[in-house]
Design brief:
Elements (H helix, E strand, L loop, with lengths): L1 H31 L14 H9 L9 H16 L4 E9 H5 L8 E11 L2 E2 L9 H20 L3 E6 L4 E11 L6 E12 L10 H14 L19 H6 L1 H9 L3 H18 L8 H12 L9 H18 L16 H5 L2 H4 L25 H17 L2 H7 L3 H7 L7
Parallel strand pairs: 2-6
Antiparallel strand pairs: 1-2, 2-3, 4-5, 5-6
């Protein structure tokens, strides 16, 4: 009986939301039908202004950060009590940690930096982080959470959309406004702590420097009769251990760029994911950030220009095999020359979007099938709508429309 009442209330809320959305669109349909990116005679409103002031703010509404942070703190507390693990620190990453999350379509990535497992000190450099060792640690964490009453919410994932060997936990938190509960996925990934014993304040920076030293080192000269030094290869363990560095790069990005990041993610999550699954969220973020480096983001129309540039770059990565590189700078990232030195790793991949910290890691080299050409076609079509059609067409008739409808809910910004 209680479930039926809850279901009825949810249905009533959805009907009310849809009616409000349709009513709002009808009120502004006539006006927005005359708003184009290239202004026309007699146009009263600016396309850029509507895009910036009305559309982009919708992307920043979602669940309560306070409620979600409370869940994260609780889980971190449990992890630190695991008798089989000795933990150095836990990093809150993912789109929540990078502040690029979108309502109802994001997860939390907790990276647990491990010193010891079952009394044994683990060394990444010595090869202790084998698949078998990771599975054992994964199982220990999953069992700990199940023992705490979370049995029905814990899943051990061997091969996810992006990471291997993680524990997935589904948490329920209150949405902004307190009108319903939101389900949030939390991925718990165990990673090596390669700065054990270090007293530096910025562990993430020190971790990056140690892990990337061999990858980014210029190849030494060798005589033709000697064996050449080994070329660096991709390593999922190293990638997971660079989570702090990735967050550090993205959180420094301007809010104007992050707003476009969220919009592109909303477009995919709400409008395309069912048809084109398995595209990693971090890949979409990287495409937008790489596109932003080619633009002057101080201009008034920068957000619209960036959205167009990101769609074009996504298309180019697929149809022209353009290598997408975010130049994160010498502190965290690498140069294009250093990226090219790792081409042997990903040269045969159909799509290449490089990890901002580790150029051996191709974010597009997912373990699951992705219909890249279908995604590129969607990007081209949406770009044409922005360039040539009205704002009403963008909001109601394009592949962005499902995202606009999903975002059009009352609530306060993050």
């Amino acid at each position: 009986m209680l479930d039926a009442v809850v279901l009825l209330l949810v249905l009533l809320f959805m009907v009310k939301f849809v009616c409000a959305f349709v009513h709002a669109l009808k009120e502004c349909r006539g006006e927005l039908s005359r708003v184009y990116l290239k202004p026309r005679p007699g146009e009263q409103r600016s396309y850029v202004a509507v895009f910036k002031c009305d559309l982009l703010p919708l992307t920043a509404r979602g669940v309560s950060r306070e409620e979600l942070q409370g869940v994260i703190d609780y889980i971190v507390g449990l992890l630190k009590k695991c008798p089989q693990l000795k933990i150095d620190r836990v990093h809150n990453g993912g789109s929540f940690g990078r502040r690029t999350m979108v309502r109802g379509a994001f997860d939390v990535d907790l990276t647990v930096f491990v010193n010891e497992f079952r009394g044994r000190q683990l060394s990444y450099m010595a090869g202790d982080w084998s698949d078998g060792m990771q599975r054992e640690m994964q199982r220990a964490v999953a069992n700990l959470l199940r023992d705490q009453g979370l049995r029905n919410h814990v899943l051990e994932v061997e091969h996810g959309t992006h990471y291997k060997h993680c524990v997935n936990l589904t948490a329920r938190v209150m949405s902004v406004g307190g009108n319903k509960m939101e389900a949030v996925d939390m991925d718990i990934k165990l990673a090596p702590n390669v700065v054990q014993g270090s007293q530096v304040a910025d562990r993430g920076k020190a971790q990056r420097d140690v892990l990337m030293a061999d990858v980014l080192r210029q190849p030494a000269r060798f005589w033709f009769w000697s064996r050449p030094p080994p070329k660096p290869d991709a390593d999922p363990v190293r990638e997971a251990a660079l989570a702090e560095a990735l967050t550090a790069v993205v959180v420094r990005i301007s809010d104007r760029v992050k707003a476009v990041v969220r919009l592109l993610k909303c477009w995919y999550k709400y409008g395309l994911q069912a048809e084109i699954p398995n595209v990693p969220s971090v890949l979409l973020e990287t495409v937008v950030l790489a596109a932003a480096q080619r633009l002057d983001m101080s201009k008034h129309e920068a957000e619209v220009s960036l959205f167009l540039a990101a769609l074009e770059l996504l298309d180019a990565a697929v149809t022209r095999r353009e290598v997408v590189v975010l130049e994160a700078g010498p502190v965290w990232g690498y140069t294009r020359a250093q990226a090219e030195s790792c081409r042997h790793v990903w040269r045969n991949d159909p799509v290449v979007v490089l990890h901002p910290i580790d150029p051996t890691c191709n974010l597009a080299a997912a373990g699951r099938t992705i219909h890249w050409h279908r995604l590129a076609s969607k990007a081209r079509a949406l770009r044409r709508v922005v360039l040539h059609d009205s704002m009403h067409d963008l909001l109601v008739c394009s592949s962005l429309a499902p995202a606009v409808a999903a975002m059009f809910q009352s609530g306060r910004d993050f």
